[in-house]
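During the reporting period the student researcher (J.K.) took over the structure-prediction task from the postdoctoral fellow and processed the backlog of single-chain submissions. One of the processed entries is reproduced below for the supervisory committee.
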Amino acid sequence: MPYQFECSQGNCQFRIRSSSEVEVKRLVRAHVRMTHGTRIAQADIDRGIERIELA
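J.K. obtained the following structure tokens:
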């Protein structure tokens, strides 16, 4: 089952989907660092990751 994370900062439309939870976490950290110039806590990533079913 794939994983998904959507950025909730401002009008950011970043969304990542992957079958790998590790990859989602890595790409979320890179996105926040490069796009928003900050860091994100692991707990915030964990709260934001959703397991999704693809149709």
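The committee noted the following: Residues 21-36 form the longest helix (16 residues).
J.K. will present the remaining backlog at the next meeting.
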